[in-house]
């Protein structure tokens, strides 16, 4: 697990290594260290830094996966809370949950063989829950030279509670127990310990990592449009092009400003009328941009909503209230 401060933000991450105990532990350590190093020290937009960080983490594992360490890999789920939004970089089958009010939303989809078959319609949810390949991941750091990942984002509200965890927790505990425990009036530390106890009581079949973060004040609305949620992991270079691509409305706004300045310079006798017309057009464009961005922002998916009525090696972290 990882927790680190960034300028105006905070980073949290979990990783679940594979390839044997020693190799898995090394893979997780390498990935977390490399990811944090890039996000903390590289400049640029947060989304771009998270993509570069995932590439760096993948290379750190991929280059060491030789000889006795051949075949090692790790999942990675990194969360950055910044300027009113939660940004997630996701590789593998670790999960992020968001408790909002009395509902628990699963933010991530598993990158596993069973989850792939479920999305393709080849398995039913009941079959997926009991399938003997349900723990086989289809995407992990270190598996190939290029990394595939999802970059997700969700606007935050005061009172939200975030859970990042590995399959060692959500597997034996289950979504409805997660909802019940996360909704109890307990501190993040107490809640994390309760969840770990439940996982161990259910057999503790795997390593258990959990990070719980309470959001008191999300820090205001996001300063930039959030990236649209894509379906499934994509290669980092493709995702980077999506993030870097500017909105067509932004180009329209810049073009309008340029034309207005040009008209004011060429027709000085009509500056007042040009300025009034320009302000009206800019106001309309800004209103439409806000509407367009609101449609682009990924909302919490209704199908991911969980409501009531519907011995492993443990590592855990309980975080206090977060005020960014």
TrEMBL record:
Domain PPM-type phosphatase, chain residue ranges per copy: 1-215
Record field: transmembrane: 273-291
- What UniProt keywords apply to this chain's record, in alphabetical order? Membrane, Transmembrane, Transmembrane helix
Record flagged with keyword Metal-binding: no
InterPro entries of this UniProt entry?
PP2C, PPM-type-like_dom_sf, PPM-type_phosphatase-like_dom
> Where along the sequence do coiled-coil regions lie?
none
PANTHER family annotated for this entry?
PROTEIN PHOSPHATASE (PTHR47992)
What's this protein's name? PPM-type phosphatase domain-containing protein
Task: Give the source species.
Answer: Deinococcus piscis
């Amino acid at each position: 697990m990882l927790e680190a401060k960034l300028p105006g933000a905070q980073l949290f991450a979990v990783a679940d290594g594979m390839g044997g105990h020693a190799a898995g532990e090394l893979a997780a350590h390498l990935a977390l260290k490399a990811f944090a190093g890039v996000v903390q020290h590289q400049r640029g937009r947060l989304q771009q830094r998270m993509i570069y960080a995932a590439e760096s983490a993948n290379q750190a594992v991929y280059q060491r996966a030789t000889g006795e360490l051949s075949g090692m890999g790790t999942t990675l789920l990194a969360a950055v809370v910044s300027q009113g939004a939660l940004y997630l970089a996701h590789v593998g089958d670790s999960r992020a949950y968001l408790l909002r009010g009395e509902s628990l939303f699963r933010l991530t989809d598993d990158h596993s063989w069973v989850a792939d078959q479920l999305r393709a319609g080849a398995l039913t949810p009941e079959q997926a829950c009991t399938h003997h390949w349900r723990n086989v991941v289809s995407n992990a750091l270190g598996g190939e030279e290029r990394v595939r990942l999802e970059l997700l984002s969700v606007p935050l509200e005061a009172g939200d509670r975030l859970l990042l965890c590995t399959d060692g927790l959500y597997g034996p505990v289950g979504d409805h127990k997660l909802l019940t425990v996360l909704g109890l009036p307990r501190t993040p530390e107490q809640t994390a310990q309760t969840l770990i106890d439940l996982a161990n009581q259910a057999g503790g079949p795997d390593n258990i990592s959990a990070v719980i973060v309470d959001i008191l004040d999300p820090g205001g609305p996001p300063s930039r449009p959030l990236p649209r949620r894509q379906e499934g992991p994509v290669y980092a270079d493709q995702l980077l092009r999506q993030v870097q691509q500017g909105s067509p409305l932004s180009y329209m706004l810049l073009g309008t400003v340029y034309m207005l300045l040009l008209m004011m310079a060429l027709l000085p006798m009509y500056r007042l009328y040009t300025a009034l017309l320009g302000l009206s057009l800019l106001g309309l464009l800004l209103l439409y941009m806000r509407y367009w961005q609101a449609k682009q922002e990924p909302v919490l998916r209704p199908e991911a909503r969980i409501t009531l009525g519907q011995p492993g090696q443990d590592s855990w972290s309980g975080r206090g209230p977060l005020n960014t």
